[in-house]
Amino acid sequence: MAEVREEVRKLLLDTKRDGIDDLVEYLDQIGFYTAPASTRFHGAEPGALAKHSINVMDCARSLAIAWLGRKWYQAHQDSITICALLHDLGKAGQFGKPLYIENVLKSGKAAAQPFKTNDELKTLPHEIVSVVEATKFIDLTEEEQRAIAWHNGLYGLFKYEIQGKEDELYMIIHFADMWASRIVERED
What we know:
Oligomer: single chain
Number of domains: 1
Shape: globular
Structural class: mainly alpha
CATH architecture: Orthogonal Bundle
Number of helices: 8
């Protein structure tokens, strides 16, 4: 976990975005490095959220270079880094409460689904919370906000808003997230 934490910190700090230092410290405070990535699918284990974010970053970098070339990637590297690493920031929770908590049966035994959504946290969907939490510390461009909010693509909340408004950054983050969660992190 320490290795993943240092990689996330370094990548974000390398963007030199105003306020990024405070955001990096905030990730520690909200449990970003200990949170699961989901309740039962990819990364349903402590610490998987940060690992998933690194996987999305790696996939996004590869996709950007393959699809648009190294020059385009270098011109958009900071946006790709920020969007890839923070696309699921809302899964760490909000208002001092984690989004996902251990799923323990009344008997005290662990349930088959290892995590469940925290009923005490009545907030917006994680895609929106990711944008809200990030913008407490750094300014996001319009494209970055869209890429983070729309990262679940037609599977998510904004399926009707997205159609016809796709752009390079959104498509890279969406497909990187899909590839990371469905292929890289797939349990065989």
